[in-house]
Write a structure and sequence with these properties.
Number of strands: 8
Distance between the termini: 47 Å
Number of helices: 9
Shape: elongated
Radius of gyration: 38 Å
Structural class: alpha+beta
CATH architecture: Up-down Bundle
CATH topology: Outer membrane efflux proteins (OEP)
Number of domains: 1
CATH superfamily: Outer membrane efflux proteins (OEP)
Length: about 425
């Protein structure tokens, strides 16, 4: 086998070897939606956002504790009275001992009956916890989008590698034709040299495609938060557009996104929390009422001393702390309103833009398919002319370059279409619902 042919088939064999996510017996099938869900569950931004939501819920529980009964107990051991011990040599005493040592035990129970300030703080903290939970959901959607896009980059690399393999196969076939025609006297040595040069260029592109695929596989594992040694096989492909993708109603998509997206709901919950913090600070001017009961021990150590009663507390002056908190709350409320309006506008723009991108991508795929068909026809016709000795292989090589470019155009158009699908799902807040 000629040297150029050995190089080509060695490259083709290497390209077929399993790398990273290549199919293995113990590999796990991974779909586009599966990649989005894994990223939403395992990626660092999603994990951080979920933990912040947990922190918000814990703070809400702390404020709720102000409304629940409080139990305290204490025990005090009295050191007693030091009494000298007589005796010893030369009138020197033997020291002292503690007498009349007692143990004082106390048990106190209290319960707030009327404390509107505490109720307001708990409700405000609960709204803050809701905002943190919505933020976590938004972070998960964004992480899912990153996972889906990383998945598509691997699919694109796979499709480009397949195109480079097809280019190399065609280059080898043209080289074989040139050699046979040279042997038959119907071609010149220049035709063979051109074919060998084209084969070398195709082989170089094949190596680059294989390296790009391996890099995208590693990046996918990083985005998904999976160990680098994980072996999965991609279950999807860059399929052509489906008719169902055009059935999305723009008005319904925008309305659903506004009611579903985490950033919109988080901004809304932040505004509600600011309003409740203001109300809680104002209610702290009101009196609070609580009941208490206490049992204490006597000198014999039994809990036979009981105290109970009703306590009313009225704040008079706190150095204008409440007024400052109210002013802070109003500023926070205005900030939340600005965030909310911006999130609504951004959501509507993203949904409408995603729909435009989806429609344009469908048309680009159709145009790219036509371009590929014409390029394949051009290669076929130039190859026939070269095989019949009517023309040299310069036309064939030019047609092959056009075909190579057309294959890339199709791959890029299909990738853009699926990126638009992911973008629309992300704009609607349903990235983790992708199939």
């Amino acid at each position: 086998m000629p040297t150029a042919s050995r190089i080509l088939w060695a490259a083709l064999s290497l390209a077929a070897l399993p790398l990273g996510l290549a199919a293995q017996g113990d590999a796990t099938p991974l779909t586009l939606g599966g990649a989005a869900r894994i990223a939403a569950e395992r990626s660092a931004p999603a994990v951080v956002a979920r933990e912040r939501a947990v922190q918000g819920a814990a703070r809400s529980a702390q404020y709720r504790a102000d409304l629940l009964p409080s139990f305290t107990s204490e025990a005090v051991i009295d050191g007693g009275t030091d009494t000298p011990v007589p005796g010893g040599l030369g009138g020197v005493g033997l020291g002292s001992i503690a007498l009349d040592r007692t143990v004082d035990m106390r048990l106190r129970v209290s319960q707030a009956l009327f404390d509107l300030g505490a109720v307001g703080r708990w409700r405000a903290a609960s709204a803050d916890a809701d905002a943190a939970a919505h933020d976590a959901r938004h972070s998960q959607d964004r992480a899912g989008e990153d996972g889906a896009l990383a998945y598509l980059r691997v699919l694109r690399a796979e499709a480009q590698l397949a195109a480079r393999i097809a280019d190399s196969t065609l280059a080898w076939e043209l080289l074989d034709i040139a050699r046979r025609q040279l042997a038959a006297g119907t071609a010149i040595a220049l035709d063979v040299t051109r074919a060998e040069s084209q084969l070398a260029a195709a082989n170089s592109a094949l190596i680059r495609g294989r390296n790009e695929r391996a890099r995208m596989e590693l990046e996918l594992l990083r985005v998904l938060g999976l160990p680098i040694a994980t072996r999965v096989v991609l279950a999807d492909s860059l399929r052509d557009p489906a008719a169902a993708d055009l059935l999305v109603n723009e008005a319904e998509a925008v309305s659903g996104a506004l009611n579903r997206r985490g950033d919109v709901l988080a901004a809304q919950a932040s505004g509600l929390a600011a309003e409740r913090w203001i109300g809680a600070a104002r209610r702290e001017r009101l009196p609070t009422v609580s009941v208490f009961a206490q049992a204490a021990s006597n000198s014999n150590g039994t809990l036979d001393s009981h105290t109970y009663g009703l306590m009313v507390s009225l704040p008079l002056f706190d150095g204008f702390r409440r007024e400052s908190r109210i002013a802070e709350g109003h500023a926070r409320e205005r900030e939340a309103e600005a965030r909310y309006q911006d999130a609504r506008r951004r959501t509507e723009v993203e949904v409408r833009s995603a729909l435009l991108d989806l429609g344009a991508a469908r048309e680009q795929v159709t145009a790219a398919r036509v371009q590929l068909t014409l390029a394949e026809r051009e290669v076929y016709q130039a190859r026939e002319r070269f095989s019949n000795g009517v023309a040299g292989n310069a036309d064939v090589i030019n047609a092959q370059l056009t075909l190579n470019s057309a294959r890339d155009v199709v791959v890029n158009a299909l990738t853009a279409y699926h990126v638009a699908r992911v973008g629309l799902a992300s704009a609607q807040g349903v990235t983790t619902g992708l199939p």
